[in-house]
Amino acid sequence: MTVQHPDLGNGPVLFISDLHLSSAQPALITFFRHFCAHEGREARAVFILGDLFDYWVHRDQATEAPYAEILALLHALHQQGTAVYLMTGNRDFALEADFLAQFGIIALPDPALLQLGNRRVLLTHGDLLCSDDHRYQRFRRVIRHPLTRLALGRLPYAWLQRIARGLRRGSSREVRTKAPAITDANPQTVVAALRGKGAFALDGAPYDMLIHGHTHRPAWEQGPEGERMVLGAWGADGARIGRWEHGQWSLQRLDPP
């Protein structure tokens, strides 16, 4: 999918990921509320590249706090003229395009291509780049398989919540035991992504730039194949977000209110 928006003008266009919003961290909800009231309102478009929520298992969550407020904040951005795009991540991949559309949010596949100015920018959550983590990649294929999704969709909401909590606890334990290199983007896979190979093959390859999150290791690198911007996770010490304005790119620090 190539993202074509009629009026991004000179921006600003913002890129965020890995907010992991949930009732367990009210300070992050306050942080996001502040972002929507300030940076979000001033932007032509906001691209959320996965893991907006710490977990999402069912649209019934939209009736609960804090999810109802978060979706309302994004809907308000849409109504005041900010285009909101959302790509799911490994925590919230159960979000569905038709559900998001109710709030004016445009669902993005992973990966997606954004033509911005004279740049062909590849957008991805980032977990596909962690190709050395073979165990996770197998789990990803299974949990996202249509038959698995169909089976999970028939379970009661309360069961899905228990499954999600168990998976999160298991994931946290696994990450602590894995070597840092395993949970980071594989350099060869990054090159393949910029060249448009394998899972990253889209019309418009090769690409000039790659933007992703997931690894929680913010960085901005220039390599022989193109640029790579890695967005940061949101936390008590702030966030690192991507910004495009008047043709200029930056990896911007965002401090909590």
UniProtKB/TrEMBL annotation:
Organism for this UniProt entry: Acidithiobacillus ferrianus
Name this polypeptide is given: UDP-2,3-diacylglucosamine hydrolase
InterPro entries listed in its UniProt record: Calcineurin-like_PHP (IPR004843), LpxH-like (IPR043461), Metallo-depent_PP-like (IPR029052), UDP-diacylglucosamine_Hdrlase (IPR010138)
Record-level GO BP terms: lipid A biosynthetic process
NCBIfam families tied to this protein: lipid_A_lpxH, PRK05340.1
Gene3D superfamilies the UniProt entry points to: 3.60.21.10
Signal peptide boundaries: none
UniProt binding sites for Mn(2+) 2: 51, 90, 125, 214
Reactions that this protein is recorded to catalyse: UDP-2-N,3-O-bis[(3R)-3-hydroxytetradecanoyl]-alpha-D-glucosamine + H2O = 2-N,3-O-bis[(3R)-3-hydroxytetradecanoyl]-alpha-D-glucosaminyl 1-phosphate + UMP + 2 H(+)
Family (UniProt): Belongs to the LpxH family.
All copies of domain Calcineurin-like phosphoesterase, residue ranges: 12-218
Lineage, highest ranks first: Bacteria, Pseudomonadati, Pseudomonadota, Acidithiobacillia, Acidithiobacillales
